[in-house]
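Hey,
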Amino acid sequence: MSVTTRRYRPEDRQAFIDLNRDWIEEYFVLEDSDREQLEELEASILDKGGQIIVALLDDRVVGTGAILPPHHDPGDGRQWLEIIKMAAQKELRGQGIGRAVLDALIAEGRSMDADAVWLETNAELKAAIRLYERCGFRHLASDDLWPTPYARCNVQMVLEFSSVAPAQAGA
């Protein structure tokens, strides 16, 4: 299986929405913040200076993710970005799609001159957490947690580019 990634195009819109709606509704409940991001996709991500990556298999979108300025400014003087809406087609999970998307998002973050990338997830999503850990993300301690717009998010992680060599991030 050969997965490729590229930046979002308008024709990818429905696939981005469907893939994210599928995983969220499989494990959790679609929240107002999800609806806003999915219904106002371009305005909530691209117009805010973000970028969307899609993974392709045989020219079909099978994975997605986005990186954008974070919903919270920690006020520490660093240039932060946030990864959101990572998704892979259900029957293809575990086959490298998430890794391909995450590697592309990390590369986007570097090209956007970020100092660090933040994300949040849920402890039940063990495969996702293992992926983030393998890519160099570390868990935030409870006193370092940011406010979250999601009821489901109980894990927050950060990747600091100053401490990760580019070769390691893309490994």
